[in-house]
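yo

u said u wanted the structure for the complex thing, so here. seqs first:
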Amino acid sequence: MIRPIGSPNTALLVFLFAWSFGFASGAAGQGRLEHLPSPAPSNSSLSRVVANESGEIYLSWVSQDTEQATLAFSRLTSEDWDTPKVISRGNNWFVNWADFPALSVDASGMVAHWLQISAQGTYDYDIRARFYPKDNTTWTAARTIHTDGISAEHGFVSMLPFDNGTTLITWLDGRETKQGNPLGAMTLRAGIFDKSGANVSEWELDHRVCDCCQTSSAMTEKGPIVVYRDRSSEEVRDIYATRLIEGAWTLPQPLHNDNWQIAGCPVNGPSVAAMNERVAVAWFSAKDDTPKIQLVMSSDSGQSFSDPIVVESPNTNGRVGTVILESNEIVVSWMDTTDGAKIVLSRYDIKGNFLDITEVASSSASRRSGFPIIEAVGNSVYVTWTDISTTPQVKVARIDY
Amino acid sequence: MPKPRKPSISQSLLVLIFVAITTLSYPLTAAETDDGNWRIVNYWSEWCAPCRVEIPMFNELSVRLANSQVIIVGVNFDEDPRELTLEIADEMGIEFTVLSQETVDLLGMKPPDVLPTTYLLSPSNEVMAKLIGMQSEQDILDALSLQGLTPLTD
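structre next:
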């Protein structure tokens, strides 16, 4: 007997086929993964993906040859990537896998930074930046964003579009490490810069922080929040947050007392995302030599946070990213070291319930593979990383949820 | 365990120069990873301030351990190309052997989560101790002592 198409048995077969296909490609999880063409050339790395308020995606990267390093970017249009545009070049840059250029974009323009070795010290470098006011349609001359004039380490920058076309820039500032007896510690500083790059205001947010972990910032309904790895006098290096509320920064508070005590550099900063009053922060720790990624959430713009959710332990080396989707779900990117190394995305609902995991790409635990960076537009997540399987090259993918 | 001779100051200087000249230039080979020695493997990076602080201690200790069955070697955490790694090591004043990535792979070492981190490897290249963060000479000697090794007093 010939069964008509659409009979219950056919539907069952279709379901089984779809189920088996989903199972066979189970590594892709629930997100629909699409690898995009990359606008970055060979010998590119240190990429970041960032969106403006209209949802336009920008990719920045550094390419290197024997003579110099070049910071460039491209914008993703509906058709393809724009022709890459150079922001700056230099033969005296500090090019580092963990501390690398950032690009900030909003309706009023762009800001980008890089690290430039200062003349006086081998390990001393300055944060140099160029600003692109949209109405001027040209990049400003490069300027140093910190005003200390001290040859020391400055880096681990995060940028955030702020009020009236200004940009909040946060960085680690080593000025105190060259002063005092005994020498001081690495500090966390922030400043607001106008469209032309002029410094509107500047603060020291914390007088003693971890030397070599990334900072991260996000805009909540009540103002910006900055997260970073603290360093207590007893060498406890837990994750702290501070917020700019009505012109004043709140006293830094721990997100959770991991009590990870180490006289060293984890090189693994936290990542914060915000949408209206909702905030999510993910971070890495390794107390008792047990690697762990945790996630906390807030529904009051970062005033209080949930207890931590363990995203993964112990098969990870961290390198986290965090975004909040239009659906209010939270996505955390991290490195899975279960079998080799993979870039994966874990998705959670608004209550912190685990939803699914999506494998984006095979990677390497090597430092040369860098830190994967994610950005959300609607219910899609854009991911960029460096593929080092052959000549290093920046890659991009989109995961639609 | 053989008792090391106590070197004179001039001998120490000669050993220091010898170590500096030879070990920075030549990575260990596969055969050298099976030489019966214990290894103190120090992961460092140029941007790691505590790494730079403890390197003079390792330099000095590597000289004092020169006639023992314990050797100090370093690994560039950043996995830069070999030529660049040696250039950075030179700038940082590292005077002990810096392993090539190939040798690190031969030893089966995995990169640590924190810098600096120092491993103690047995002669069969088994990790016997993992010392996280900046170490003192006494910390290293204590780790060796826990393995029954007292190379400075034997």
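The interface with chain B takes residues 96-99, 122-123, 153, 177, 211-212, 235, 262-268, 284, 286, 289, 291, 317-318, 365-368 of chain A (CB under 8 Å). Residues 1-28 of chain A have pLDDT under 50 and may be disordered.
cya
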